[in-house]
Amino acid sequence: MAKTKVHGEYLDPSVISAQTEVTAVGSDHMLIFDATDNALKKALLSDLIETVGSTPTFTSAVISGDLTVDTSTLKVDSSNNRVGIGVTSPTGKLGIYGGNIDDIPLVITHAWGSSSTALISASNASSEVFKVERSGNVGIGGSPDTQLNIKNGDDAVVRIESIGSESGDDARLELKTTNGTFTIQNDRSLGTSGALTFAGNTSDNLVIDHNLGLIGIGTASPETYLHIKTTSPTISMTDTNSFSDTNDRFQIRANADVGQFQWYDDSASSTTTLMTLTPSGYVEIASASQVRLTLGNSGTAGTNTANWVRGTGNELGFNSAGGGFHWEIGGTERMRILASGGLTFNGDTAAANALDDYEEGTWTPGFGGATLSTATGHYTKIGNQVTVHYHIVSSGGMPTSSAQVQISGLPFTIDSNGAGAIYARYYTPNDSTLTTILVDGDSFIRLININEQNFDYTVYGELEASHNNSVDIRGTATYKV
Question: How far apart are CA 25 and CA 46, in angstroms?
Fold first, then answer.
């Protein structure tokens, strides 16, 4: 058995039992015998333990007052009930200080338990406020469900704050994958009071002005609530509910000093411009065949049951859903096309008063079968009124002298009696004037000698047809159809 030496003399082990305390001479230390390794150990009051023999082992120890191990390796401040590791004057209940740049102030290892077992857990009087699990998940306000989970019974708030005053002192959040980094930043250099920016490979992809709430895409200085700035900027919209091809899209585009509404056909990989708006205020609507602008909510858009304006080729068409058209000036109706046809004016909607026809054309007058070297006629029809003009020159083949003179071939049958002026060369009677008369139901003009007694229809013999067998008649007549 080893012997213990005290002040140069060996003690007999048989007289010292296990864990016997021996107080040595002096007031700054004491001797403790450890029977497990037969070593006598000196414990100084200055907390420096020296061993005579081998390293001391304590089963338990009670120390009143401060405890210092190797100056600052471990410090127990009994006056303030504080413990310091690496610091001689801890300012909290536990202060850990890494003195060198490569020092790791705190290492916590927990090799056992589930992934949710806590490595670090902090609680207040009622609940857990902070937890770090073996899985690496961190929870603030409760146990984490993700790598970082912040929970609060009211509003959960995360603040990233830059307290600097320089122009480049911004607050940012970076989201990184192997493809690159996406940065969300409060940039104090933009706008009047900073702006929230979103950036990927390109800076300021999206900017929200802090003061006015303006949103810029492709610009750090938005001028409106939504300002997109790039080459031919385009907004695309796809209706996943009703589009027959959900890869098709409706587009609004700014392009070459114009604004455009477009349709993109994915299957054909083609874009059709539906409407173009120019800076001067012109609106251009075009397509491959027809363009219909539907107005109002009557009927089905794009069909004849709706009101529309349509361009077809070089023509412009208008369609009402069933009613008429009317034109106003200063809110007062000046002209109307009735649904039944016909044109009225100044608010008149009566069909009986409508102008329902206008026509101009030519007709070929006949002269009782005579041979005509000239036979020309023109007419104008306005509503139910027809005015005809004619010129006849005969060159032979005149009817019998007793037959009534008739100018046939009128463009419309006479509905009501009418009359007209006429000039006839080589007219025989000297006691009357020659004129024309139009009788309802006829399709020809009769010539009549004017006298005070009766209707004296002119006969061919009175035209002196014997004069070279030629008659020259020019006239006009108006009648109702």
Answer: 16
Residue 462 — φ and ψ, nearest 5°?
Answer: -80, -5
Q: Which sequence spans correspond to the domains of the chain?
A: 4-96, 109-158, 171-230, 235-288, 359-480
Residue, of 78 and 419, whose pLDDT is higher? 78
pLDDT at 22 over 90: no
Residue 351 three-state SS: helix
Structure tokens at 458: 């002119």
Query: Any residues with CB less than 8 A from the CB of 348 and at least 6 apart, and which?
Result: 336, 354
Amino acid sitting at position 207: V
**Among residues 82, 34, 42, which one has the least CA distance to residue 59?**
34
Closest CA to 217 of 231, 206, 202: 206
pTM value is: 0.52
Token digits of residue 382: 């306005």
Query: What backbone torsions phi and psi does residue 13 show, to the nearest 5 degrees?
Result: -60, -25
CB atoms within 10 A of CB 189: 13
Cβ-in-10-Å burial (0-12, 13-18, 19+) of 434 comes to buried
Quick: pLDDT tens for 154-168: 999 999 999 998 888
Query: Each residue of 13-23: b (16+ CB within 10 Å) or e?
Result: eeebeeeeeee
Give one DSSP letter per residue of 56-96, joined into a string.
---S-----S-EEETTTTEEEETTTTEEEES-SS-SSSEEE
CATH T-level fold of 359-480: Immunoglobulin-like (2.60.40)
Asked if 38 and 1 count as a contact pair (C-beta separation under 8 A), the reply is: yes
- Hey, what amino acid is at 11? L
What per-residue confidence (pLDDT) applies to 185? Answer: 93
67 CB-side CA count, 13 A: 14
